[in-house]
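Anyone able to model this chain together with phosphoenolpyruvate?
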Amino acid sequence: MSFFRREQRPFVIAGPCSAETREQVLQTAVALKKIGQDNTCVPVQLFRAGVWKPRTRPGSFEGVGEEALGWLKEVKDTLGLLVTVEVAETAHIELALKYNIDVLWVGARTTVNPFQVQHLADALKGVKIPVMVKNPVNPDVALWQGAIERFERAGIEDIAAIHRGFSGYGNGGSYRNEPNWPIPIELKRRKPGLPMICDPSHISGKRDRIAEVAQKAMDMDFDGLMVETHPRPDEAWSDADQQVTPETLQFILLHLVVRREYTEEMGMGIELEYLRQLMDSLDAEIIDLVARRMELSERMGAIKRAFNITAYQPDRWREIVETRSARALGHNLDKDFILKLYELIHHESIKKQLAILQDPSKEIKSNS
Ligand code: PEP
Ligand code: MN
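re: yes, here you go
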């Protein structure tokens, strides 16, 4: 059984964005320790606090450093809570191990850099400690997977991924970091068995959206949650807008609906099984139809080549978008979803036609 998969789901990690003072760290930990003691909700299994903070611009609070590791050790020794910190340099690892920190996490700005991740992995060779790897700030599933594999190769047995969203320019306003759910789902597909933890604090950036993102993670079969908590969130030295009090976290956990992955042994899934079979055959039809559409496209490519017509025809594409969107609306399908789907299909179709237009073997031979 993985360190991150306990009998009680979700595995909850909570604590402040940054360790600020001894009093703030201990006050938060005491309040978090109380959660779930009466069995009304899951307990907090791991206490987090940033000790070295990766800030976007210089001049912001960059963490207390080594002194704060002593406060975390106190949390561990006096309350029996396991503790975790972010490590971004090998020196951080050495210090974290010196203070008996239980779990390490790699931040989003470190995961983007394979050199740095390799340094961290090398420093952990022969060390038995669980490691959590946050997604890189850019939406690159292979880079996230690669970072995890570096720790696997260094011999780390307990590894979890943390989904904290992806940054963008402006991000359209709604989230601080776009969740882009297909990316963690794809990582789960590539690495079956990898525990997946959601960090709704960094995704939402606003405390009133944390419950909603946490619930979504549960509905997507995530294993755990990492939530930033502070006794006085508005006064936090970093990430003030997204931190909640331990009492609010308790409220969120009390209202969380935890669902299970469906397995055949559950027995009550006959209807679900039937619907899955219907879906399987519909998917087979969809793929057959897409293949037929591509064949038509190739035949059109040959005609376009013969008459020297461009592969991309703006008027035709406009017409496709209009008619397909109108049809989608008639079926209550989201217009943007159908547009995205057709962009993919159209792009593939153009690619096939370009291959025909540019195929040198089909060059018309002159007789001279
Ligand atoms: C954090 O957890 O406080 C943090 C800095 O996270 P991230 O690496 O996701 O930005
Ligand atoms: Mn933070």
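Residues 274 and 280 are 10 Å apart (CA to CA).
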